[in-house]
Amino acid sequence: MPSHATCRLASPEEQIAAQHAVIARFESALWDGGFNASLLASYQSAWRRLETLIAARGGDRRHQFVLVIPVADSPAQLRRCLASLLELCRAFGYGGMRDGRFSKVSVILADDSEDAGLIAGNRAIAREFDAQGLAIDYFGIAEQLALMDTLAHVDLGSIVGTAPRDAFGHKGQAMMRNIAYLKLAQLQETGVPLLVYTLDADQQFKVKVETADSDVCAVNFFAQLDAIFSATDADVLTGKVVGDPPVSPAVMAGNFLDDVAGFLHEMAASDPAQPYRPNAANTSDADAAYHDMAGLFGFANPADAYRYRCNLAGTPSNADCFGDFAQRLKRFFHGEHPTRITWYRHQPARDSVQPARTVYTGNYVFRPRALSWFIPFAPLRLRMSGPTLGRLMKAELGDKFISANLPMLHTRTLDATGEAEFRPGVVTAADSIDLTDEFERQFFGDVMLFTVERLTALGFPQQALPGETLAATLDAVHAEMAQQYRARHAGIVKKLDALTRMLNDPARWWHAPAHAQALAQFRVFLDNMQRNFGAGSPGHACIASEEDWQRWRQRQLAALTRFHADRQVWDQALSALTPRG
Hints:
Elements: H1 12-30, H2 40-57, E1 64-71, H3 75-92, E2 97-98, E3 101-102, E4 105-111, H4 116-130, E5 135-139, H5 141-149, H6 157-160, H7 173-184, E6 194-199, E7 203-204, E8 207-209, E9 214-216, H8 221-231, E10 236-238, E11 241-243, H9 253-268, H10 318-328, E12 354-355, E13 363-366, H11 385-397, E14 401-403, E15 408-410, E16 427-429, E17 432-434, H12 436-457, H13 467-503, H14 516-533, H15 538-544, H16 546-577
Parallel strand pairs: 1-4, 1-6, 4-5, 10-14, 11-15
Antiparallel strand pairs: 2-3, 6-13, 7-15, 8-9, 10-13, 12-14, 16-17
Helix pairs in contact: 1-2, 3-4, 9-13, 10-14, 11-12, 12-13, 12-15, 13-14, 13-16
């Protein structure tokens, strides 16, 4: 009697390979023609099925992730960040769970808060999410001081600062990260490959998609990063951000005034009762379209103004959207760009890998051997520390420093207030907002960035350059940057004048009593623009001051001169902290 035909049972490896193919098909369909929300649950489920197959096979050698999250006086943003991490872990299941904990994901919460009540709140949030399966190590001021006490014999002041013990909060993201990196040096070797993932508390593990106009958990960050680091010899990978821009309002005022002027011109030519014209895809998809000086970074500035995307329900009128835009204007000073939102554009992560030149300090990942890189010049508290670090990494790491299309959602403001929860260098009093400190740190951060970029072309940091070369380069870049800022300032003053005249034209329909609140909000916006970017701007006066420049020059030149010594001291600290086998 003939025997029945039998089918060979696929091996675990074959089942896993087949499931990867299923995931690839789902991913292609999910993003075909834009984001297809109806497929998201199935896409996430396909990843969880893969995790089941990997667990059944055993011997999971994929990377473990330690997330470093600095936070300062921002419990609401921290909660939002951790909630997105929990959602990511549940949706895709990377690494599975063991004893009620996600087994391949843990968090070091580096608290740089100053307010005792907010510190207590951050501790409570850490406990809350720890109880839900996220292993969270709270690294507060007491723990930071205890760590630094073990390194009292090492002079780390030019890397982590010299804050007094009784005022150790609000050191800033760069110094806080450097202290957290020292803590990482204490981690015991487990035999499982490790990746360090550092992000900011105002970010989420989501992407902003234009077709659905929403924020979605649609990228399996951990699996994609594991695959890239498994397939390459990269030491450092940086992503970018979507949503709010990663830069200061100090370098966005010019183009936002263009957009506001474009909006008012459109409103002036419209019947307030008629429906607001919906947005198509928002103007051009230019890189760094939010930056007034995008050309400095090799990008083109879009020629056209960007239209405001009105998200009121139904079919809002022009007057409705005039009011909606008016109440969003103040968000600009807290880091949101109401017209130039960055949307996620899908490209398979592994296909997107390319050499990098900029570190996004709120979204980069590195192997433990890259702990040799600290955030440079941190005690200066300059903006642009990530791009500056990136130029140094590019010079020394070459193709071991990469970027990939793995952006995180960046949300600067809270819906309830329209303001950032905590933003160093921004002073608010009622409707008045003062950006002078942030403006100064932005300008001199740009000076440091482009000085370092030029120095790397001369062999820095691999080679120690003469002091005369450092000084001459710094002076030349400062002069050029000052000219860039002066030219931009002159343009902004003209734009402000024209916009103020147009807004205050009594013949415009928005002067009717029904629009009084919106008109008042526009005027508050223009008052703050005049205060921070107008002819009498204290920020511009500060960067034009020879006395201020000489003070900054001395500090920046000293930091550049000391960089090689800082690296030696850092290596000494890492060596002292690294556990001995």
